[in-house]
Predict the structure.
Amino acid sequence: MNPDAVPPDRPESFRAAPVPRRSSLLLLPALAWLGLFFFVPLALMLAISFASRGTYGGVVWTLSLANYANVLDPLYVKVFLRSVLLASVTTVLCLALGFPIAYYIARLPARRQGIWLLLVMIPFWTNFLIRTYAWIFMLRTEGLMNQVLAGLGLIGSPVDVLYTEMAIVIGLVYGYLPFMILPLSAAVERLPPSLVEAAWDLYASRWAVLWRVIVPLTKPGLVAGCTLVFIPSLGAFMTPDLMGGARTMMIGNLIQHEFLVARDWPFGSAIALVLMVSVLLGLAIYLRAERAGTRLAAGG
Amino acid sequence: MAESSVELRDVSKRHGDTRAVDRVSLVIRRGEFFAILGPSGSGKTTLLRMLAGFESPDAGDILIDGRSVRGVPPNQRPVNLVFQTYALFPHLTVAGNIAFGLEMRRLPRADIAARVEEALDMVRLQGKQDRLPAQLSGGEQQRVAVARALVNRPAVLLLDEPLGALDQQLRTDMQVELKTIQERVGLTFICVTHHQEEALTMSDRVAVMRQGRLLQVGSPRDIYEAPQSAFVANFIGRSNSLTGRIEMVSGLRCTVRAADLPAADPVVAACPAGAGIGSPATLMLRPERLHLSADVQVDGYDNMLPARVSKAIYNGSETQYLLALSDRLSWQVLIPNAGNGQKRFQPGESVFLRWRADEAVVLSE
Amino acid sequence: MSRKHTWLLSASVANLVFLYAPIVVLILFSFNASRLSATWQGFTLEWYRLLLEDEALRLSVQNSLVVAVVSTVVATGLGVCAAVGLERHPFRGREVVEGAMLLPLVIPEIMMGVSLMLFFLLVKLPLSLITVAIGHAAFNVPIVLVIVRARLRKLDPSLEEAARDLGATPWQAFRRVTWPLLMPAVAGSVLLAFTVSLDDFIVTFFTAGPGSTTLPLYVYSMVKSGVTPTINALSAILVLVSMALIGASLALQRR
């Protein structure tokens, strides 16, 4: 090979493309599938959100913002606020419960770390419905929780936790806790223990070590964990459906109600899109934080 | 004020089944540059971590400035540590890193600024205070780590393999720089290292550790010239050894017959204390103290052994000869490279090794 | 230090108790002789026997398996190709395309469910097992893509270069070097896609029609109609099945 004929960027492009250019054609089948069965339906939903409901359900193609205006009805705003509140409480609880165990796992030797992570994951691999049912079984009026509490003499008469907002939060925390633990423990693991020791050596109290060193340096993991818990909690449908009551409707239930019970597809679409936009906004914040985290790690 | 800066009294620490530190007693003087030297696993890092407060002794006591530090957590000890990996906070700037300890102790802002400035000055990092650690070179990071610890004016500065991550050239420069800084601030420095040259160059006194035990403490010169064990002799610098039995004692001298060289004349050496006729002895000889020549007759030496050159390695400043004294015994000799007239020996050549009786260290073990 | 450690350990153990207690209680009570009460009335296998006789349950399990197999096969094919396509040749807007393909993972599942339902109703495709499988394949593509792509990214590019240097064509280099190294990731993603499909409730809920009840839908209707020991028994079986699946997946990845 004549070295003069090699363009300067040759090693770079050679590395990146050992397979010829047409390899990007491999993307097409997946793109087509997702296009037809993911993006087209979403676009359709967007279109329908500007239409209006026919007399017997169905869609009448008009162009109006009435559905979005309708979302602002205090009745629905309340559902939105409740969803945001319950998702936030869930996230905070997951963080409080998950941080100690994540930290503990991250500082274990590799072998035991694997075992603990597996222990955290096993319940998570069990069907979500089953896990929800497990709590229904525990929390119902004649359930085990009430019997234990009564047996301990802590309560006189059974407490009705099930079908309240508290039950929903318990169900959501139970469902999404591993989403918090995994990224957090990965982030703590990346934090060299010597940094914690250095802070401690430099007169920092435990509290100062936590806030000045651990939290800033595990921020990408914290944000990732919170995002991974908050997003599915906000859009939850099954947990509030099974564990909540008529007065604890969340956005997911509202959407389902509009589509399957009220058969107002345009309005249901509008609500769903508002939900999606809020989620994407949250995601954008997450990505920005993550990018900042990467920059920090790379020192750029 | 107590004369000792740090005192260890019978300190022991177990890690699982191994005695990481085994009944170590040691007094380190105020203002001294003290090196703890040992191979990995010798317990030197454990010792340092106990001084810093990250680990606590199973038995014994540690005194800093005359006060026991038992149960005192690291953040309340008047010592600061320069970590082997530097452990600079990646999210804080150079100035932020240096100021960290002062902020934790809630010093007034103005004081902090002044002292950070002073520290930057000392380690010659003026103008780099707003950089993040990742934007610094290895040598600069090392100096930030030193400044971050020194700025707190600790009673003792601990250094864990401080130069381990640097390349050879920087290492040599930083040895001198660290020593200079230490002399300027006058603080007690305790440096843990497995690098013998580092220990000898920088410190006032050196402690050699092995398997959790303290083998010898002394000035670099003592340690090098008068090692008290074969391990110390071999760990610090290179050494040739000859084992045998004492054949005759006359005054301060004795003659030793080498077990590996039954045919050769016995060698004359300084007699180790308490050694009698028939007791085993080991001679340790530094490669640079040996005289090498092809002549049969050379004056001024007490001992002579014949040998054959098996390899000559040219090292720039000196030439290293590997010599076979017998089938089983091989020594090395270092000869400084001088002008063109110098005699150079070739592999296979027969030569004579000579040395004066007091050049050898005799250990009776 | 050790004080902090015991504190962390007890917090961690409490966490595990929280995670496991409900499942353990659930399984224990699947052997309880009492139909209604949460107090222990003696050991029985009655509820398991009832499950075996439940024809609707058998049908739902069969439906779930069909959907899981079909959607996993489709998603694995599409996902592996897409991962290779994304990794191999950088092109303008690659990040955007990748982000778009991962979108199904991040938007609330209910969005996917209702929009697919609208789509199928409007194109007049009757809701059936086919529509369910289509939906499952759509959310499984990004799952396969993420796992396989992560593995591809970790592979040393010089391996393929070495193969090329030793005279392999690009296809041979891929087939003989990259593909064997990729296999664990592909196997892992197959198992994960299969499990996710078996477990899916929401997308199925909106895209299933009469006669296409899957296992989660069946469980849902049981739970909706009230707490019965039969659900406990079914849950116990499902917990064991999912444990077996994880065991298989871990064993595969270790090889």
Summary: DSSP finds 14 helices and two strands in chain A. Confidence is low (pLDDT under 50) at residues 1-19 of chain A. The beta strands of chain A are 52-53, 59-60.
